[in-house]
Amino acid sequence: MDALRRQQYALTMELETLEYARKLRSSKSVWEGFARRQALERQAAVFENAQLKKVLQHHADVLSRLRAVVEPATMSCRMDDDLVLAHVTRGPLPRNWSNSTLHERLDAQKALLPSIFRKHGLDCQQDSWKQIVSRVDTATGDIVLEISTCLVVHAGFADVGDAMSCIYTPKQPLHVENRSIEILEIVDASSHIGEHVHCVASETFRRRFARKCSALHDRIVFVEQTIEADHGDRPYTETKYEALEYLRRDRCHWKMFRCVRLPVRDMLCVDLQQELMASFAASMDNVIDALESVVQSLARTITRDNHHVRWLLYEG
Q1: Pick from 263, 305, 291, 296: nearest CA to 128
Q2: In which band, very low, low, confident or very high, does the pLDDT at 82 lie, cut at 50, 70 and 90?
Q3: How many CB atoms lie within 10 A of CB 4?
Q4: Given 121, 145, 147, 243, which is the most exposed site by the fewest CB atoms within 10 A?
Q5: In-domain check, residue 40
Q6: How much is the CA Rg of the chain, to the nearest whole Å?
Q7: What is the DSSP string of 110-153?
Q8: Are 145 and 277 in contact, with CB atoms under 8 Å apart?
Q9: 10 Å Cβ neighbour count for 147?
Q10: Distance in angstroms (rounded) separating the CA atoms of residues 213 and 57
């Protein structure tokens, strides 16, 4: 009888030990699951903070470049003798316009960008292509050039955004072949007013434009419209819709639609029409070349900085 009691006691103790061990394992698994969830949440928060930091850094770079544009120029920019253009009276905004009027017009244009891209086939994720359409507006007789461009850029989203900021907000008046562009006024951190001059076939086409940039973490949108033409030369109007879209770490999409309206109503000016089409098509190629050049320059600068950091770490 005593042996049975001792055996019962031993089995009871073993059962209690097993039950206690089971409770410990259950509690441990609960805490392990909680720790895993906490680790995943921390990882997601770190990634989101890194993305936000990248966007804020890009915005800070854009602001620094815009401030630099306002500073007095210290370099003189050479210009070909045959492209010397008449000086324009500096009154960037049209009469009876205010900054709020300008923003309202640019914001209204920005709202049209999705429908414009859908209409001209720029809402897809295809490879690089370019299309130029020439037509005559039956209502006004103007020549209308519609240029659509979709370019896959093999570079980082932030680098290409920096390159576009460098191209579209030059610190000095920029002259390329038979065209020139100059920033007349920085309205605020996202908008500026400039002047574009185009010389083709002994004719000078001049316009004043406003441009606005809106940046998100995975997309940068540019809109541009003509706000005034100089009546001393042949005026023309141009409207632009642009978007830079993030694809992956080292690749992004640059899309643009341009509508150029030229007041050339003499249908006998076939040569002038052809030269205008060729010139505006070439201007797109110049922008693409400039974009690639600036991206490569930024990449070389980053590479040199990385080499310098590695050298300092090694020497230290």
Answers
A1: 291
A2: very low
A3: 8
A4: 121
A5: no
A6: 31
A7: HHTHHHHHHHTT-SS----EEEEEEEE-TTT--EEEEEEEEEEE
A8: yes
A9: 22
A10: 16
Q: Is the pTM of this model over 0.70?
A: no
Rounded distance between C-alpha atoms, residue 273 and residue 277, angstroms: 6
Give the 3-state secondary structure of residue 300: helix
- Distances in whole angstroms, Cα of residue 265 to Cα of each of 136, 145, 268, 299: 9, 14, 9, 47
- The answer to whether position 205 is within a domain reads yes
Looking at the domain assignment, is residue 9 inside a domain?
Answer: no
pLDDT tens column, 222-250: 999 988 755 555 567 889 999 988 888 88
Please report the sign of the dihedral spanned by the C-alpha atoms of residue 54, residue 58, residue 59, residue 63.
Answer: positive
Residues 6+ apart with CB under 8 A from 186: 66, 69, 70, 192
**If you ran DSSP here, which 8-state letter would residue 91 be given?**
-
Split into its structural domains, the chain has a count of 1
Q: Is residue 119 part of a domain?
A: yes
Cα pseudo-dihedral 211, 214, 218, 219, rounded to 10: -40
Question: What residues have CB less than 8 Å from 66, skipping those under 6 apart?
Answer: 169, 186, 189, 192
Closest CA to 111 of 241, 254, 215, 279: 241
Q: Residue 131 belongs to a domain with what CATH number?
A: 3.30.530.20
Give me the domain span that covers residue 213.
72-308
**75 vs 171: CA distance, rounded Å:** 10
Smallest CA-to-CA distance from 142 within 264, 228, 237 is with: 264
Annotate 194-252 with DSSP letters as a single string.
EEEEEEETTEEEEEEEEEEEEE-SSEEEEEEEEEE--TTSEE-EEEEEEEEEEEETTEE
Query: Residue 77 half-sphere exposure, CB side, CA atoms within 13 Å?
Result: 14
Q: Please tell me which of 53-57, 135-139, 268-272 the model is most confident about, judged by mean pLDDT.
A: 135-139
